[in-house]
Design a protein that fits this description.
Blueprint: E1 8-11, H1 16-27, E2 31-36, H2 42-53, E3 58-63, H3 73-76, E4 81-84, H4 96-116, E5 123-127, H5 137-142, H6 163-180, E6 186-192, E7 194-196, H7 209-217, E8 230-234, H8 235-247, E9 253-257, E10 260-262, H9 264-274, H10 287-297, H11 303-309, H12 319-325, H13 332-345
Parallel strand pairs: 1-2, 1-4, 2-3, 4-5, 5-6, 6-9, 7-8
Antiparallel strand pairs: 8-10
Length: 352
């Protein structure tokens, strides 16, 4: 059992998922050791200070750097539970090795090697991704039983094709490798699909999630959206999954954390019910047309990507997390509407 009177470390504490996890911990009266790049940047941590002020818990900041060995040692002192959420989720990168692979893999190694040298640590929860399990929607059909489970590992991503997925695969593999090299603490991984929902820090949204949402709502796709098969989950449910994975003694292994199988067109159509005065997509963009214009419009939309993801339903088995961690997922409409409303409030999207 994790002692709730001891501090809990959260790496990347200013992140999208991490913010809601910090809230969950503070609301339960826990002292959070928040590892952030620059604790003096008051703008970045203001929302966390606000959460702490209105909760039973307390927050302490520690300067840390994913690529600097030993920089998490002070923050980890006395912690029995470590949440490693820090990892880049960006679609705009110049050098995939430097911008994606190194921070993900070296960062994971840095945090978990520090855990090996910190006698108090009993459990580490790593934020992985469904991207460590699959690359393209077609992979979910090719998995045993026609859907991905926790037993499946990504075998189709590479440095040249979908390097973000490759970074998540390598980082999670590194985590399990380090876990097997010791017997002091156990490891649990949370593997979310596309995380949507309201950010707690709307001014500092850097997650690629919001690039997706912005394109759906700003008119980019008003002529039609591809039925791009993806999984989706609410950020608040992902935070709850992390919390339960940390404190439930029976939590073990990997957890697919995904509520819905959806696509870009369906997301636009759901939002249209509430936000009909915004330039949302209402009709599908044909696959053949995407094959023609996609590669010119977006470097991610290669013909291979289009072939393997458009008009292909995303399929995953989320029964393990429901059964073992007691997670009940929010409706898709609630997650999308809450996220969209924040983007409107922040002036990121305007009515037509």
């Amino acid at each position: 059992m994790i002692d709730k009177s001891k501090p809990v470390l959260v790496t990347g504490a200013t992140g999208f998922v991490a913010g809601w996890l910090v809230k969950e911990l503070l609301d339960n009266g826990i002292t959070v050791h928040a590892a952030v790049r620059d604790p003096k940047n008051k703008k970045k941590v203001a929302h966390l200070d606000e959460l702490a002020k209105n909760s039973k818990g307390e927050i302490k900041y520690f300067a840390s750097d994913l690529l600097k060995e030993g920089s998490y040692a002070e923050a980890m002192e006395d912690c029995e539970l470590v949440y490693h959420t820090a990892s880049p989720f960006i679609t705009n990168y110049n050098d995939p090795q430097k911008d994606l692979i190194d921070p993900a893999v070296k960062g994971t190694a840095n945090v978990l090697e520090t855990a090996k040298n910190t006698p108090s640590v009993k459990r580490v929860v790593v934020t992985s991704s469904c991207a460590a399990i699959y690359t393209d929607a077609i992979d979910t059909h090719n998995a045993p039983g026609g859907r991905i489970t926790e037993e499946v590992w990504n075998t189709t991503a590479s440095l040249d094709y979908q390097p973000y997925s490759y970074s998540k695969l390598l980082a999670e593999k590194k985590a399990w490798e380090i876990q097997k090299s010791q017997n002091q603490w156990d490891l649990v991984t949370i593997n979310p699909s596309l995380v949507v929902g309201p950010p707690l820090n709307a001014n500092a949204v850097t997650s690629a999630t919001f690039d997706f949402m912005k394109q759906i709502g700003d008119g980019t796709l008003k002529m039609g959206a591809p039925r791009l098969g993806i999984g989706m989950v609410d950020v608040r449910d992902v935070a709850k999954a992390h919390y339960n994975a940390g404190f439930m003694p029976e939590a073990q292994g990997r957890y697919i954390t995904s509520a819905h199988s959806t696509n870009l067109l369906e997301m636009g159509q759901i939002l249209s019910e509430e936000y009909g005065n915004y330039p949302l997509p209402k009709r599908p963009m044909p696959k053949w047309l995407l094959m023609l214009v996609g590669p010119m419009a977006n470097k991610l939309f290669t013909r291979k990507f289009i072939k393997n993801n458009v008009d292909i339903e995303w399929k995953a088995d989320n029964s393990k997390i429901k059964r073992e961690l007691g997670i009940e997922f929010r409706p898709q409409k609630e997650s999308l509407n809450d996220a969209f409303q924040v983007m409107i409030d922040e002036g990121l999207i305007a009515a037509k």
